Structures are given as structure tokens and as C-alpha cells.
Amino acid sequence: EKLKAQEYLSQVYVCNYGGILCWIRNLKLNLEPLLFGYKMGMKIGDMQHAMLSVSSYIKIGFISGLNLRKVERDIQKFEKEMIEYNQTTVHRWMLPIKRAVLDLMLSTDDPLAIDENSAIQHYLHQKAVEGNSLVVESSIYNFSAMVAYIYNKYDLAAALMQKRYEVEKKMSRPTHWYGLTAFYDGLIFLALAHRSSEFEWTSDVGDIMSKMETFMQIGRSNIEHKLLLLEAEVKSKIGQKDIASQKYKLAIAAAEKNGFIHEQAIATERAADFFLRNNDKSNASLYYGRANSLYLKWGAKGKADDLCKNIPF
After folding, report:
1. Distance separating alpha carbons of residues 16 and 46, to the nearest angstrom
2. How many CB atoms are located within 10 Å of the residue 260 CB?
3. Which residue from 29, 57, 87, 177 lies 20 to 30 Å from 21 (Cα-Cα)?
4. Distance of CA 2 to CAs 14, 15, 37, Å?
5. How far apart are CA 144 and CA 141, in angstroms?
6. 245-300 pLDDT tens trace
7. Taking all residues of the chain, what is their mean pLDDT, rounded to a whole number?
8. Cβ atoms of residues 27 and 262 within 8 Å
9. Taking CA 165 as the corner, what is the angle to CA 175 and CA 62, rounded to the nearest 5 degrees?
10. Residue 26: which region, alpha, beta or left (left: phi > 0; alpha: psi -120 to 50)?
11. Which three-class secondary structure string do you get for the chain?
12. Distances (CA, A) of 236 to 262, 264, 269
């Protein structure tokens, strides 16, 4: 009976720690159990669930803000095993994360590396379309929009978000990525709203805020700082400056408390943008500097370099 139980352990772990429990508790708490599920799968020869466990480990590590250099090392290590054990589908599911990690790490001063990563993206998208893999295609657009937003390329982020919507219409259900998808959708809408007073944003952002409030009732630590940042951006947009300033600071503190360094960096950069819009260059400079340090700590050297080059004063 003990051997029989071990046979199903990897399957149980990937379902629980790669799915249900990611909504309920802090994402990082699921990483070690997923690695254990991988090891148990390898031990009994269940390669499929071993690779599913480690694929979830990598995705959740990235989403929860693990250092990008570590995530990249894990990808390099485990994708070799995925290829060796002919786990093509699982490997393909992981590749959008690989592309996002490299995009954030690469400096724009390294054109050869960027060209190589663009080639990977083109190949991945082609294979997703050829294989009619809607999950992979949706993930490509999802994480590419996230990266575009982080690099302040808001028109590109919006176009990628729209392409994801088109793919999701063909899917039985969309992938929420534990609140991440709605979070970045909201940020993209609000970025466009800040830029143009004619952009209609209230309905879409209202729907997203309702989703995020529901997600926070399920698991606070993954969502609290995200919702606070969205609230800060809304208050900034409608001119409630004092409340917005406080919300930005609360979002930064909550992201730090919950261990989401990448979203702490994003909240800090948005706070800097807010101060700049309101002619407070002293605080804007302070917060841009803090954001840059946080991006570097996360391992996003490409983003940090880009921020330094594009600080608007």
C-alpha cells in the first residue's frame, strides 16, 4: 500500500501545490513541495508528472518573484531532462516563461542575445499555432504583455493583451495565473488611461478590480499588494492625489512583506511616475532610484538598464 501511495504522490503534489494551494497561500510556499513531487516522480519512473511538477515549480517561481538568475539556471537544468525524456508538451508549456526571463535579464546593449531570444519567440509561436496549442499561445501573449508593460511599452502590451483575448475565446476556460493576468490587464488599461484622457477605461478596470477583490478573499498574500497598486493607479487617474500617494506606499510595503520583489519594483516605479506627474521631482528621483535597485535585486538587469536610460529628467 505504501508503494501504491508513492505511485500517485507526484500526481497529487502537482495538482495540490501547482494548483489549488497556489490560490490559498503564498505562492513561494508551494515551491519546495513541487520539487519533492518532481523527485518522487523521477524515483518511480513517472516522468510525465515529474516534469509537470518541475514545470509548475519554474512557472510559480517566476510569477512569485524568485531571482531571475536562479529561474534561468533551473530552466537550463530541467529543460534538458524534458527533452531527454521526450516530454515535449511540458517543455513547450515552459518556454514562454523562458522567453520572459531572458527578455527581462538581457541588456539592450547585447543585440546578439536579443536577436537569439527573438528567434526563440518566433519558433515557439510558430509551433504553438501549428500544434493548435491554445494554452501555449495564450501564455506567449500573456507573458509577452507582462514584459512589454514592465518595459513601459504600453501600446505593445495592449496589442498582446488583445491577441490573448482572441485566443481565449477559443479556449474552454482562460488561465488566470493566480491573479497575475488580471493584475497586468488592469495595469495596462490604467497606463493607457494616464496617457490619454480620451481612453475609456472605467468599465474594464472595474471588472478587473472586482476579480482581484474575489481573488484576495481566497488568498490575501498573493493579491493584497496587486490590488493596492491598482487602487493607487485609479486614485491617481481620478485626481485623488493624497489617497493615491498613500496607496502607492501601502502597495510597496505589502509587496515587500509578502516577498514579491518584482511587484515591489513595479509599484515603486509607478509611484515615481505619480510624483513626476505631480511635479514632485525630488520624490520621483528617490523612487526611480529605489525601483532601479529592486529590479537589479530581482535580476532584471535589462529592465534596470532601460529604466536608467529613460528616466525622464
Report:
1. 17
2. 25
3. 87
4. 19, 20, 16
5. 5
6. 999 999 999 999 999 999 999 999 999 999 999 999 999 999 999 999 999 999 99
7. 91
8. no
9. 40
10. beta
11. CHHHHHHHHHHHHHHHHHHHHHHHCCHHHHHHHHHHHHHHHHHHCCHHHHHHHHHHHHHHHHHCCCCHHHHHHHHHHHHHHHHHCCCHHHHHHHHHHHHHHHHHHCCCCCHHHHHHHHHHHHHHHHHHHHCCCHHHHHHHHHHHHHHHHHCCCHHHHHHHHHHHHHHHCCCCCCCCHHHHHHHHHHHHHHHHHHHCCCCCCHHHHHHHHHHHHHHHHHCHHHHHHHHHHHHHHHHHHCCCHHHHHHHHHHHHHHHHHHCCHHHHHHHHHHHHHHHHHCCCHHHHHHHHHHHHHHHHHHCCHHHHHHHHHHCCC
12. 21, 18, 14
Q: Which domains does the chain have, with CATH numbers?
A: 2-95+182-310 (1.25.40.10)
pLDDT for res 197:
78
